[in-house]
Amino acid sequence: MFQLSKFNTLISLVLQGNKNWAWAPVLLARVSLGLFFAISGGHKLLVPARSEALVKVMMEAGIPFPEFMSIFLASVEFFGGMFLIVGFLSTFCAIALTIAMLVAIFTVELHTIPQGLSVLNWLSYFLYLPQVMYVLIFGWLIATGPGRHSIDHFIARALSIENGTFARGATGSTAV
């Protein structure tokens, strides 16, 4: 019976994973994407050659007010990335960065895919774009939340918020 129990546990791990470790990939994804965007945004803000290149790309893409929009985008990347690293306003940052990546996909990246491809080949090129993967990971982070190793988690605990609702008080009513 003991051996069967270990086998069942192994099968369960293979088929369903281990929920006790679910925090680890959330933390790794949030921090690594945060670092990437903080560094990228910082370079666009502080390195003149990067700033000029971004303005040029925005002009070529036909984005209005390219000088302002380049500073805005770089700021969203930098501050959104910094906040993601520590897990502060994570959902808001993930939404803002998702919008930035969708704009990049539709204004710049789609034009890099060769014309005349079959649907599967076009999809292969599209899914290979890093911005697509960022959007998917941000969607996952929005759905799962920033994890227990985040400022957002500590704020939610301090406010007695669990799973999107306020914790029930002694009377059984929901605090508003």
Distance between the termini: 51 Å
The low-pLDDT segments are 169-176
Strand order of the largest sheet: 1-2
By DSSP, the count of extended strands is 2
Describe the structure in your own words:
The protein is mainly alpha-helical. It has one domain (about 20-145). Helices cover about 70% and strands about 0% of the residues. It has 8 helices and 2 strands, in the order H-H-H-H-H-H-H-H-E-E. The chain has helices spanning about 1-15, 25-45, 50-60, 65-85, 90-105, 120-130, 130-145, 150-160, and strands at about 160, 165. The protein has a two-stranded antiparallel sheet with strand order 1-2. A hairpin with a 2-residue loop joins strand 1 and strand 2 (about 165). Helix 2 (about 25-45) packs antiparallel against helix 4 (about 65-85), helix 2 (about 25-45) packs across helix 7 (about 130-145) and helix 3 crosses helix 4. The termini are far apart. Mean pLDDT is about 90; it is low at about 170-175.
